[in-house]
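RECORD TYPE: protein structure
NAME: DUF4352 domain-containing protein
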Amino acid sequence: MAGAAVAASGAGLIAGSGTAGASGPASGGVRTSFGSVRLTGAERQARLGSGAAAAAAGHGGHGAAVVSGTAQPANRTWGDHLALQLEVRNDTDHEVLFSPGQLRLKVGPDGPSVTNRGSDAAGGLLAAGATQRYWISFLAPSGAKGMAAEFTDPWLETDRPLALALPPVVRRPGSLNEGATTHG
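PREDICTED:
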């Protein structure tokens, strides 16, 4: 019931705004009902290190598997970690609600879109006229190409999420389990 109250108050916050500011979206940004969003950074890293690949080879298929030269988790989840930096701009004269869950990763042109596994900040109110950047992390298939992102704006008059192109992806050495982490 509390979630419904928050959602209802969020709709009220945005409903009175009309259109976004006259300045338009930032370079590379996509217009939203409250301003714009754009991806400004992307970092990719293996989740498991070289030690896991060696262990997989020596355990006859028990434990991590090696796919495309990268160790994959034993639980058959995707083996890469992708962190995306999302810039959210509020061009209105009032606060708007934002949640990192509004950004999803699209795996391939006809593939699934997946929810994030974490963010450097919780959702909440974005101040009037403010621009904020968030690192949002996802699991991704090792070696996957053609990924994109989708942003859901619940107050925009469309049933489809907004498509966001990924910026160039920086490949980070090491792995999450070896302590060399990305931002997400």
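COMMENT: The chain has two helices and 14 strands.
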